[in-house]
Amino acid sequence: MIISILGGTGDQGPGMAMRWAKAGIDVIIGSRQQEKAQGVAAELNQVLGQDLIKGMANPEAAAAADVVALTVPFSAHQATIESVQEHLGGKVFIDVCVPLDPDNPRKMQPPAAGSATEEAQALLGDTVKVVAAFQNVSASELRELEHDIDCDVLICGNDRGARQTVMDLVKQMGLHPVDAGLAYNANVIESLTALLIGLNIRNKVKGSGVRITGLPG
Ligand SMILES: NC(=O)c1ccc[n+]([C@@H]2O[C@H](COP(=O)([O-])OP(=O)(O)OC[C@H]3O[C@@H](n4cnc5c(N)ncnc54)[C@H](OP(=O)(O)O)[C@@H]3O)[C@@H](O)[C@H]2O)c1
């Protein structure tokens, strides 16, 4: 299993990369600039104390992976997807992006498709299995590798098998996934991020999260 994280040079990607690498999964950091990706990969390997993560330009990273995750600002969502689309056929695509209002990150500003996830699925077509995940887990929590993260990871997407693949990958990171059903629920999951940002600001914390209660397991 090889996972590439496009835009993994920013805030959200590195914690995901290090947690997967620690679990024995091959991870590639993607960037618009190969050197930047390689530099961030080297920094993360230094934190891990092992050479586990590689860096590549986004298209090469997408081509080399079995599963591709996207962690870019929503303003770059469509352009980044289009720049790697030819390399995604048949793959699971994890969309982490949240369409926040650029003037107010406490507010969601959904695209016409309803959510970033549904936009990605519409852009990529049915051969790519788009799954929403990690929108409600903060970058700072993900980067604290020895720290248990006290929240659920809500997963949704139209392909049940792809949801299961991502649920397994979330478990391998030491987090708790919840199957939240079809892609139309991504609007709710992405909206929760805006709510959590507001809670973080009001309570002067960095990592509020969500926990679904009453479920078996
Ligand atoms: N940060 C969080 O706590 C958090 C939590 C949940 C969800 N999210 C969501 O995850 C996504 C990534 O968040 P982040 O905080 O990691 O973002 P970020 O640090 O601002 O950006 C991530 C990477 O995206 C690329 N990028 C930035 N501007 C771009 C542009 N105009 N065109 C193409 N690529 C661009 C850059 O990579 P290169 O320069 O290397 O190409 C950058 O390092 C966002 O949609 C955010 O809403 C974030």
Structure, explained:
β6 and β7 form a beta hairpin. The chain is globular, with a radius of gyration of 16 Å. The longest helix has 18 residues, at 186-203. It is built from eight helices and ten strands. The chain has an eight-stranded mixed sheet with strand order 3-2-1-4-5-8-9-10, with helices on both faces. It has a two-stranded antiparallel ribbon with strand order 6-7. The protein is α/β, with parallel strands linked by helices and 217 residues long. Helices cover 40% and strands 21% of the residues. α1 packs across α2 (34-48) and α4 (77-84) runs parallel beside α5. Bound molecules: NADP nicotinamide-adenine-dinucleotide phosphate. NADP nicotinamide-adenine-dinucleotide phosphate (NAP) binds at residues 7, 9-13, 31-32, 36, 71-76, 80, 96-98, 100, 135, 138-139, 193.
